Amino acid sequence: MTTTAKVRKYTRIKLAKAKIVAWEHLGERNVSTVRVLGLGGLFINTPAPAPTGDYIKLVFEVPDGDVRARALVCDSRSGEGMGIQFVSMGYEARARLNKLLTASAPV
């Protein structure tokens, strides 16, 4: 029996308190929660996720400001949520996210 483990480029952290994330897909705006995130992406908890392969725009708050990004949906699970990979993000937003992640313990 063989198993395949996901190889992640960036460490993920589990948040003690869920963060609110606003996201947009095909012009429809949504608000959901996030409990796991990393510099490469995050998992958005939502009962109606965007399909795998689609792109979304998102924004969420971190201690020093907000993070705005464009992301690719890599894993969509109906009734649960979606794993997304950041594809574009401003330098300052990336620095704010990195600061949060380096101050937290990895999953």
Plain-language structure description:
Strand 1 (12-25) and strand 2 (28-38) form a beta hairpin. Helix content is 11%, strand content 56%. It has a 6-stranded antiparallel barrel with strand order 1-2-3-6-5-4. It has 1 helix and 6 strands; from the N terminus they run E-E-E-E-E-E-H. By secondary structure, the chain is mainly beta.
Give a short summary of the structure.
This protein is mainly beta and 107 residues long.
List the helices and strands and how they pair.
Layout: E1 12-25, E2 28-38, E3 41-45, E4 55-62, E5 65-77, E6 81-89, H1 91-102
Antiparallel strand pairs: 1-2, 1-4, 2-3, 3-6, 4-5, 5-6
Which term fits the overall shape?
globular
Into which percent range does the helicity of residues fall? Answer: 10-25%
Overall mean pLDDT: 90
Total strands: the figure is 6
Q: What is the oligomer described by this structure? A: single chain
Keywords for this entry:
107 residues; 6-stranded antiparallel beta barrel; 1 helix; globular
